[in-house]
Specification:
The complex is a heterodimer of chains A (138) and B (137).
Chain A: H1 2-13, H2 19-36, E1 42-48, H3 56-59, E2 67-72, E3 75-78, E4 81-83, H4 85-98, E5 104-109, H5 114-126, E6 132-137
Parallel strand pairs in A: 2-5, 5-6
Antiparallel strand pairs in A: 2-3, 3-4
Chain B: H1 2-8, H2 13-35, E1 60-64, E2 70-72, E3 75-77, H3 79-93, E4 99-103, H4 109-122, E5 127-134
The chains are: A alpha/beta (138), B alpha/beta (137).
């Protein structure tokens, strides 16, 4: 009986792979990766239309049906009315309820911040407006 | 006693080798991908914007930092160089190549305009702005 036990133990000891050490290493790797991994932000892509350089002159005469949003260094106007971001949101929601296919012309001045443009594009995306043209003005 | 053991047991060593090789390969490729974009650019927030689902392999990512410097994969260039580069892109991949502008929130519009004009000049019309939809926890 005692002899049998001894034999079994020896056969385990002479096994090919030492699992304990491997599991240790794998756990170390796992912990290392969990600690070092950096979560990635979800990125959105806001599509815009841009007038081609040849059509630049024509674009300046604006048909009355478009919604014109202007972005200045210190604020926005929508159809020549100065509004805040909150007010613009409600106005755009109302306009989008009529028709989401209408053209929105976004005119940004040279010194306005890109962030303001993204804010306007985000509001348009929120209300499902798709025809967004970005025009740069001086 | 020894012979039947060798026949029955699976040899783990090559498998472990392969798994480690795979791990190293993925770690290296993730690092390379991360180096291609400028992490210092602080994008603006667009919580309602459409999330990126399909990635076009042809897409050109142009970065503009808040000082107005234009770069592609951390290579800084002037707008005339960008214009020529985009013309090459059109020659190789066609006009439907998407252009993604990663501009910092504090960038002035005139600097972003340079990039948009270069794209329009080359005939690229699929222009979109990258923004953060959801901040990672």
């Amino acid at each position: 009986m005692a002899r049998k036990k001894r034999r079994i133990r020896r056969s385990v000891e002479s096994g090919d792979v030492q699992m304990t050490a491997m599991i240790d290493v794998v756990f170390q790797l796992l912990v290392y990766f969990i600690v070092t991994i950096q979560p990635v932000d979800v990125i959105a892509h806001l599509d815009v239309f841009r007038p081609s350089p040849e059509a630049k002159q024509e674009q300046l005469q604006t048909p009355p049906k478009m919604i014109r949003i202007q972005i200045f260094q210190d604020g926005f106007t929508i159809n020549d009315r100065a509004v805040g971001l909150r007010e613009m949101e409600t106005l755009l929601a109302r306009l989008a309820a009529i028709d989401t296919k209408q053209t929105i012309m976004i005119m940004a001045t040279a010194h306005s911040k890109h962030e303001a443009l993204v804010q306007v594009l985000d509001l348009c995306a929120k209300n499902g407006l798709q025809n967004l043209s970005v025009i740069s003005t001086n | 006693m020894k012979k039947p053991r060798e026949e029955g047991g699976v040899n783990m060593t090559p498998m472990i080798d392969v798994v480690f090789q795979l791990i190293i390969f993925f770690v290296c490729t993730v690092e390379l991908e991360r180096q291609a974009i400028d992490e210092s650019i602080r994008l603006s927030m667009a919580p309602h914007g459409p999330a990126v689902e399909v990635k076009d392999p042809r897409e050109v990512v142009i970065e503009v930092d808040d000082r107005g410097r234009i770069s592609i994969a951390r290579n800084y260039m002037s707008d005339t160089v960008l214009r020529n580069l985009l013309r090459n892109v059109v020659a190789n991949h066609g006009q439907t190549t998407p252009v993604i502008i990663r501009a910092a929130g504090g960038t002035r519009h005139e600097d972003v305009r340079k990039v948009m004009d270069a794209a329009a000049y080359a005939g690229l019309w699929k222009v979109s702005f990258a923004a953060i939809k959801e901040v990672a926890q």
